């Protein structure tokens, strides 16, 4: 009877889907030292050869599961990249808002480091007003670029200084030009990058700060799928001089630019959280008022139970 239980256990572990779970094989191996002595005691009076075959089969299956799970885990890591650590982003709280000083520093990092290859086609200069810069600062920043406009009355294409309604400038005219300049790799638009990647904020920060010593001729980053990444390491200590005097370490620049990219992907987050808090407050007042009226004003409308003493 005990041997039959072992056979059923092996069939249970043999069903599809278990090979991709390393914890299953580890659990089987941990359970083996406990099960084997008990089964040996239970089968002391039965056929020893059949019991030995069952135990041998059990060990072979457990070893096979462990080997296959290790290979599957390693191949999954190579295909999808190393798992990212989880960082405590201050704006992820229920009632937390963006660090606007960090958003401003992050825009500075993007402007001086990232914008030479990556675009942000969904962000215009007016979006920065009141978030990272004043209106006067944003207007002065916009006038530094030249925007192709027109046609004129003569049908000619004109260029003009930028204005608040213009989007942030793109580094390349089209995708073909971007690939040609980057050896065939296409730098993605960063406007929604923290939403377009799994575990977005943590992934982008880990990618920017996770470069390792590469093999010969390869830029290596374990957090990038496959490890070989076309983008070289861009963040080094002192690469940017912050306007507010914050030390521009690699981690600080990574944190600031990820905060800026998070705001760019979800600029309405603060307004949404504030609206949610207002609704919670209003519904709480309504609930308190309903409880008060139920206890005082509406108590006379509740039915009463009348008991008649017919004996007396």
Structure summarized in a few sentences:
With 312 residues, the protein is mainly α.
Strand order of the largest sheet: 1-2
Low-confidence stretches: 16-46, 66-75
Termini gap: 74 Å
Count the strands?
Answer: 2
| Radius of gyration, taken over Cα atoms and rounded to an integer in Å | 32 Å
Shape: extended
Q: What proportion of the residues is helical, as a percent range?
A: 40-55%
Largest sheet: 2 strands, antiparallel
Class by alpha and beta content:
mainly alpha
* Average pLDDT level: 80
What's the order of the H and E elements?
HHHHHEEHHHHH
Work out the strand percent: under 5%
Number of alpha- plus pi-helical segments: 10
From the structure above, extract its key features.
312 residues, mainly alpha, two-stranded antiparallel ribbon, 10 helices, 2 strands
Describe this structure in words.
The chain has helices spanning 2-13, 22-42, 48-80, 100-114, 135-142, 175-181, 193-196, 200-209, 250-265, 269-295, and strands spanning 146-149, 158-161. The protein is built from ten helices and two strands, in the order H-H-H-H-H-E-E-H-H-H-H-H. 49% of the residues lie in helices and 3% in strands. With 312 residues, the protein is mostly helical. A hairpin with an 8-residue loop joins strand 1 and strand 2.
Itemize the secondary structure elements and their pairings.
Layout (H helix, E strand, L loop, with lengths): L1 H12 L8 H21 L5 H33 L19 H15 L20 H8 L3 E4 L8 E4 L13 H7 L11 H4 L3 H10 L40 H16 L3 H27 L17
Antiparallel strand pairs: 1-2
Helix pairs in contact: 1-3, 2-3, 4-9, 8-9
């Amino acid at each position: 009877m005990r041997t039959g239980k072992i056979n059923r256990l092996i069939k249970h572990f043999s069903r599809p889907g278990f090979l991709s779970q390393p914890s299953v094989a580890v659990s089987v191996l941990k359970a083996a030292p406990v099960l084997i002595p008990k089964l040996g005691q239970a089968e002391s009076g039965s056929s020893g050869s059949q019991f030995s075959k069952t135990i041998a089969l059990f060990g072979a299956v457990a070893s096979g599961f462990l080997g296959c799970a290790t290979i599957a885990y390693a191949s999954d890591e190579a295909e999808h990249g190393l798992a990212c650590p989880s960082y405590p982003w201050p704006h992820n709280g229920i009632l937390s808002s963006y660090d606007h000083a960090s958003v401003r520093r992050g825009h500075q990092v993007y402007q001086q480091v990232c914008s030479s290859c990556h675009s942000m086609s969904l962000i215009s200069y007016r979006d920065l007003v009141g978030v990272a810069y004043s209106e006067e600062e944003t207007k002065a920043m916009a006038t530094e670029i030249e925007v192709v406009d027109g046609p004129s009355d003569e049908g000619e294409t004109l260029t003009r200084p930028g204005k608040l309604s213009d989007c942030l400038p793109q580094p390349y005219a089209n995708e073909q030009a971007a690939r040609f300049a980057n050896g065939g790799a296409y730098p993605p638009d960063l406007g929604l990058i923290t939403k377009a990647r799994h575990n977005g904020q943590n992934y982008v920060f880990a990618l920017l700060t996770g470069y390792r010593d590469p093999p010969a001729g390869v830029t290596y980053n374990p957090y990038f799928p496959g490890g070989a990444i076309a983008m070289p390491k861009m963040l080094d200590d002192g690469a940017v001089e912050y306007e507010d005097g914050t030390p521009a370490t690699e981690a600080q620049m990574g944190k600031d630019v990820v905060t800026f990219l998070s705001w760019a992907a979800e600029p309405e987050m603060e307004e949404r959280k504030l609206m949610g808090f207002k609704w919670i407050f209003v519904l709480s007042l309504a609930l308190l008022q309903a409880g008060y009226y139920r206890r005082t004003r509406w108590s006379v409308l509740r039915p009463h139970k009348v008991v008649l003493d017919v004996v007396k």
